[in-house]
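To make this tangible, this section ends with a sequence with its structure tokens:
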Amino acid sequence: MAQAKISAKASEGVQQQQQQPQSGGQLRGRFYRSTSMADRSSRLLENLDQLELRVEAFRDAASAMEQEKETLLEMIHNIQNSQDMRHISEGEREELNLTANRLMGRTLTVEVSVETIRNAQQQESLQHATKMIDEIVNKLLDDLEDAKIRLMSLYGACTSDVPAGPIDQKFQSVVIGCAIEDQKKIKRRLETLLRNLENSEKSITLLEHQKSSIRQSCNSKQD
């Protein structure tokens, strides 16, 4: 109905302009073009649709930069705490640590933050999920193996793949209540924690193997 009124008024305007003579007695009707409100609205909407695509691409790029920063910091940290760093001279280790700290500092100078829009329920779900993860992390040193099993059950609740072990159903229901972006961040955090645990286990296993080799060597010399 509104569109019909707009079209009717636009037609009346064109007829009136055609009836008014220009200077010199010529009518300007055949050269006059009227842009209706509907045309303007449609054009503006199209521009906004294009901008929305660019905004989402911009947020995706910023989110990718956030992930890259996390990855770089994790890789630098892993190098500093690797077994290879323990088996070089003190002078070389000190020099490498200086380089690693310099890279760490330069990485931290880059501030990237993508804010997630949440409603009250999503905010509450995020806090609950974070608390559940933190409780396990705080008990890592008490029982490494149990912590790993519990973190894997949380991770299984976040992935669409068939999990290798049991799923924490309670955690899954909490994560479902989170915003989509928060769900991805929770999954990435669990992946990072599990990788760090895996690296810790390898370090512990290697250290125990070295201790065992030293003991065997000592026993052989005593014999």
Summary: DSSP finds eight helices and no strands in the chain. The mean pLDDT is 80. The longest helix spans residues 37-80.
